[in-house]
């Protein structure tokens, strides 16, 4: 996969040393597996401390919509130093299939050292633990 990413920042507000951000963008990707070829929408809700130099904590998802169905990422949290930047992170993502891809999951992985930005495979969802259920709120 090749990706241009979203610009850091986005909408948000600054309250003292805390900055919130919200980003949504479409990422152009080229996949070797045609089942993943579609529109990849990235959403990120985050908080950074000490403005542009400090800790970033964010929850993010990718949704890939194709002509035959969709791949919905299980939400994840990401932590990194803003100085290190989001392009220098490692991560593993699980996207559950819908429509023609029902019963399948895409498992994608990236390390900061990889020359290829993302590697992965598509497996039967039965081989993975189920997505966690939402916790009840009081």
Would you mind describing this structure in some detail?
By secondary structure, the chain is mainly β. The chain contains no helices and nine strands. The protein has one domain (14-126). It has strands spanning 14-15, 18-27, 39-49, 55-65, 69-73, 76-81, 91-99, 104-110, 119-124. Strands 1, 2, 3, 4, 5, 6, 7, 8 and 9 form a nine-stranded antiparallel beta sheet that branches. Strand 1 and strand 2 form a beta hairpin. The protein starts with 13 loop residues before the first strand and ends in a 14-residue tail after the last strand.
Low-confidence stretches: none
Radius of gyration: 16 Å
> SSE order, as H and E?
EEEEEEEEE
Structural class: mainly beta
Secondary-structure blueprint:
Blueprint lengths: L13 E2 L2 E10 L11 E11 L5 E11 L3 E5 L2 E6 L9 E9 L4 E7 L8 E6 L14
Antiparallel strand pairs: 1-2, 2-3, 3-4, 4-5, 4-6, 5-7, 7-8, 8-9
């Amino acid at each position: 996969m090749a990706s241009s990413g979203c610009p850091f920042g986005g909408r948000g507000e600054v309250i003292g040393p805390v900055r919130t951000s919200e980003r949504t963008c479409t990422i152009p990707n080229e996949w070797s597996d045609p089942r993943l070829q579609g529109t990849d929408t990235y959403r990120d809700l985050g908080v950074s401390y000490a403005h542009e130099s400090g800790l970033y904590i964010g929850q993010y998802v990718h949704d890939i919509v194709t002509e035959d169905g969709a791949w919905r990422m299980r939400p994840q949290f990401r932590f990194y130093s803003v100085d290190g930047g989001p392009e220098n992170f490692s991560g593993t993502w699980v996207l559950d299939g819908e429509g023609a891809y029902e019963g399948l999951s895409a498992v994608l992985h990236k390390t900061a050292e990889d020359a290829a930005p993302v590697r992965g495979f598509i497996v039967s969802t039965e081989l993975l633990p189920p997505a966690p259920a939402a916790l009840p709120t009081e």
